[in-house]
Design goal:
alpha/beta; GMP Synthetase, Chain A, domain 3; 2 domains; 7-stranded mixed sheet; 5-stranded parallel sheet; 20 helices
Length: about 650
Amino acid sequence: MMVTKELELEALLQENRHFEPSEEFRNNANVKTPDLYNESSEDRIGFWAKQSERLTWIEPWTKVLDWEPPFAQWFVGGKLNAAYNCLDRHLKSWRRNKAAILFEGENGDSRVLTYQDLYREVSQFANVLKSMGIKKGDRVTIYLPMIPEAAIAMLACARIGAPHSVIFGGFSAESLRNRIEDAQAKVLITSDGSFRKGNIVPLKSNADIALEGVNCIEHVVVVKRTDNKVAMQEGRDIWYHDAMKNAQLTCPVEPMDAEDVLFILYTSGTTGKPKGVVHTTGGYMVGVSTTHDWVFDLKEEDVYWCTADVGWITGHSYIVYGPLANGATVLMYEGTPDYPAKDRNWEIIEKYGVTILYTAPTAIRTFMKWGPSYPQGRDLSSLRLLGTVGEPINPEAWIWYHKYIGGERCPIVDTWWQTETGMIMMTPLPGITETKPGSCTVPFPGVKVEIVDQAGNPVPKGSGGLLVVREPWPAMLRTVYNDPDRYVSTYWSNWKEIYFTGDGAKWDEEGYFWLLGRVDDVINVSGHRIGTAEVESSLVDYPLVAEAACIGKDHEVKGQAIVCFVTLKEGFKVMDGLVDELKQHVGKKIGAIARPDDIFFTAELPKTRSGKIMRRLLRDIAEGRALGDVSTLADAAVLDFLKRKYNEEE
């Protein structure tokens, strides 16, 4: 069935620039042949069966996939252990003395943990957890900064079969409490504090507040990081270093069924109650190890830096489990990109000879705002591959990243995936894919992603619609913790057997995919459904603009009017006529239908702690409503400024 205009997402923005991998990169790439796409499409099950061989199994699986929509089991009957695959098996080769984690603290302190070192600390801490009565199936909450102990705690849980729930260190006491109680965790692992821009974030104090009235936590392990004075509750709290003193150096791994839970990771829900996304062991490990190897073209000598926090799925999949399963050297950085100066990231790349950088578009736009002088002041010649994650990247940010960070020589892998997918789902393969700025290109081999109308029928090329995954994939979420009905209603209720991502997308005549933003953020102007990503990209295309966020505001004639919030690059001020000039630029770039009604200038935009723009709060401001849930907001002062600014200009 052809989609009707009312149901179709407009595909307005055109991008015609192409970038091919260099001959040298192509010749040395891990994946050299495009035939892989056809082969994996013809036999998806056989493809993933083959990829399972990259792991070490305690007992072999007997069936690749058991699919009873919407519930999947992968590698049925197989047994393995994630920590063994990340550590023990590397000790049998020269990798035992290879750096597993390079740690850089905000204050410039550093540590190097080889695979042997990491194995020893993980085994010791696993024994600490066992001494506290933690056994297979018990939940453990981790509330730590970006320090090696975060990865150690995760792997120690995996070693003994205790599902971990990592909570980002920037979350409040209330957010922490809600997640602890939902998981009914028995142990909390935290620290005396964390460093952030020269200040100390009081994690232990937050944890103490969170635990008031909570009955499930039996022990709290506290890592000494800042020497911040904290209260220690006798009988409940113990210092990490004291607990580790007498712990044995070896700990046998718990054989885990492929479908045993590896971790629970909470993601915000529209109802306000966080969803505990459940990932299991076998399929997840196959998915993240395969994608990490191929997408980042991993080599033994690489120094790989993913700038995400371990509290997010990106940190789970592409700091800990994927890279360590592949024997990579992983950089962990505790601080922010602008402390003590705005070239901190570039200083770190220069210091450690980073070869692969994986970061978020929101960070890239911030670097654009600061200007190119900061990266130009450092030696970034070690970089050979760049990646983006977290949200669609607008073409001009892509070009800036390519030019000023990659030196116009590094392929860029623009990846699309979600907490729920567990692994990268759409991406270039850097040795074979011709890239287009702003496009995540095509689905990863063995993954079937489509764009459909509201009846679930694929839309023709050149059109937009709803982004779905048509077939199960190994790293997919299995359920929402203790709430299978919510799992079904959230992800599988639109169409039988099709996973709905919640995103809008288009694909061009060449079959390249372009994300248009969350469907909830689509703006309906006079019957035309316009994705926020395209309007924002057209604004950032203007030379003075660093970042933009667009929303729909109720309009009595058009249904919705487009309202934009714009941040200018450093050194530029709002001039007379700039608003009209920007409106004209959008109209010229993508059409008069997308021309904004209002444009407001702001120094900052409201973002989550992972850097995603919170457009729903901008909608609340524009509509004059009471603000919704702000628990994930990074800086509340931004909202106060925006409310005043908006009301003044209105």
